[in-house]
């Protein structure tokens, strides 16, 4: 699963990516510096892992990971190919979520592509280009579906209804993820996934601010967002933990990573033992067999049952034996829905 970092040129995208992944990328101060997307894997911060690893005296600890893609800056007209827009839109299409970096800070020495800092206008520019690209996708699909309706193809009428709803919403400038499609919700969701619309993806906004305590306009504050001082995050790269603490500087990148992880409906279950303590990524709402597939396909196909205990209960018990005696360690079957933070031993 991966999130694409998007925004206008010179808003801090590549600097953020560098801070997130500690990879050296080109962050020169000019538009379209990033042409090919940079890809980086980051650890999902999880304090539970260290505690469980200590509990089990594990030889190694393996965190969950999340992928970020640094996508070059979009500009007005990208949906029509401006600024290498077609290539950039294709890169966004390959991601699962959109993390949109928005410049809120003022700095006359850093060029703004529109020669002014206006966060709301910047968001509108990016979202409009994504909406226009989606509108083109929907219009083309609708032209094909018209023929299917005339031929009485099964499901074509319902598909036309969904396309019409999307076309109307996109024409009004709304994002596809804000559209409630009529009919069977599961079938509608499956159809929407097949269209691969850019604005059907979940959005998280990163407000790049000098003053993290400053108030935001209501229309910005209402959006799902994280506040970051991206320049500060870059400075923290060259400091030890002790140096940062001495200066009272704290990174907010863990918050961003966790929010992006959660944005995609992801959660973590845990395994722990002498060999390793590991975090495993699953979709929220996964059954025990489906969660087992994250480890090995046999754990889903040959699932019998699972021993499950919440991580805090295991630590509080002090040992696996004590956890069994107190009833905190329990057996669960195929219908069990895994909770974030469950420690699981699969039986096959």
Topology overview:
Blueprint: E1 2-6, H1 13-21, E2 38-43, H2 47-56, E3 60-62, E4 65-70, H3 85-93, E5 97-103, H4 119-150, H5 156-171, H6 185-195, E6 203-208, H7 218-221, E7 225-228, H8 230-236, H9 241-246, H10 253-263, E8 266-272, E9 276-283, H11 288-292, H12 297-301, E10 305-310, H13 311-317, H14 320-325, E11 330-332, E12 342-347
Parallel strand pairs: 1-4, 1-5, 3-9, 5-6, 6-7
Antiparallel strand pairs: 2-4, 8-9, 10-11, 10-12
Write structural notes for this entry.
- This protein is of the alpha/beta class and 348 residues long.
- Helix content is 40%, strand content 19%.
- It has 14 helices and twelve strands.
- The strands form three sheets. Strands 2-4-1-5-6-7 form a six-stranded mixed beta sheet, with helices on both faces. It has a three-stranded mixed beta sheet with strand order 3-9-8.
- α1 (13-21) runs parallel beside α8 and α4 (119-150) runs antiparallel to α5.
- The protein is flat and about 65 Å long.
């Amino acid at each position: 699963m991966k999130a694409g970092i998007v925004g206008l040129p010179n808003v801090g995208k590549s600097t953020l990516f560098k801070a997130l992944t500690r990879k050296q990328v080109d962050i020169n101060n000019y538009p379209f510096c990033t042409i090919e997307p940079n890809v980086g894997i980051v650890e999902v911060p999880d304090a539970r892992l260290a505690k469980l690893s200590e509990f089990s005296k594990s030889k190694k600890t393996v965190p969950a990971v999340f992928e970020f893609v640094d996508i070059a800056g979009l500009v007005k007209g990208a949906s029509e190919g401006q600024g290498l827009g077609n290539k950039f839109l294709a890169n966004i299409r390959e991601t699962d979520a959109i993390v949109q970096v928005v410049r809120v800070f003022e700095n006359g020495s850093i060029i703004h592509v529109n020669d002014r800092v206006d966060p709301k206008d910047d968001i509108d520019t990016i979202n409009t280009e994504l909406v226009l690209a989606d509108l083109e996708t929907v219009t083309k699909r609708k032209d094909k579906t018209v023929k299917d309706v005339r031929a009485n193809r099964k499901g074509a009428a319902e598909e036309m209804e969904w396309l019409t709803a999307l076309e109307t919403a996109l024409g009004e400038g709304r994002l596809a993820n804000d559209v409630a499609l009529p009919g069977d919700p599961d079938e509608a969701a499956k159809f929407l996934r097949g269209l691969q619309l850019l604005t059907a993806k979940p959005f998280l906004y990163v407000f790049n601010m000098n003053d993290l305590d400053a108030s935001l306009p209501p229309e910005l504050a209402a959006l799902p967002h994280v506040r970051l001082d991206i320049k500060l995050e870059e400075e923290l790269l060259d400091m030890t933990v002790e140096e940062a603490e001495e200066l009272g500087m704290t990174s907010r990148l863990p918050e961003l990573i966790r929010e992006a992880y959660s944005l995609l409906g992801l959660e973590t279950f845990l395994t722990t033992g002498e060999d390793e303590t590991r975090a495993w990524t699953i979709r929220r709402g996964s059954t025990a067999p489906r969660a087992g597939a994250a480890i090995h396909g046999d754990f889903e196909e040959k699932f019998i049952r699972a021993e499950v205990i919440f991580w805090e209960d295991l630590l509080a018990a002090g040992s696996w034996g004590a956890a069994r005696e107190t009833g905190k360690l329990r057996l669960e079957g195929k219908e069990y829905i895994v909770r974030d933070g469950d420690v699981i031993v699969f039986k096959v």
